[in-house]
Amino acid sequence: MAESRLPGVSLTERTLADMQREVDAYITQFKEGYFSPLALLARLAEEAGELAREVNHLYGEKPKKQDEAEGSVELELGDILFILICFANSLGIDLTDAFRRVMDKFNTRDANRWTRVDAETR
Description:
Elements: H1 16-27, H2 37-59, H3 73-91, H4 95-109
Helix pairs in contact: 1-3, 2-3
C-alpha cells in the first residue's frame, strides 16, 4: 500500500454534516431544488470524466493542447464531492453514517487482505 500523502498537509476541519447542510442551504434557495437521482448520476459521470482528463494530462501520456485551458485535479475532486453531497441529500442519506458503515466493512472484511506496514517504518 502506498505511503500516506497526508503528513505535512494542512487539512481544514469540516464535518460531512457541515458540508451536507451547506450544500442543502445552497440548493434549496432555488425553486428547481435537487436534480433527480438519474440526472445526478449523469452529472457524477461527467465530473468523473473531467477528473480523468486532468489526471491523464498530468500523469498520463496525453499532454494538453497548447490552446487548452489549465485544469485542476483539486477542483475536479471538489466538483465530484459537491455532486456526491447533492446525491446524498436528495435521497436523505447521512454521509457520515454511510462513511462509518463503509469503514466498518473495510476494517472487518478486509482486515487481513493487504500487507501491513511494520510499526517501526512509520
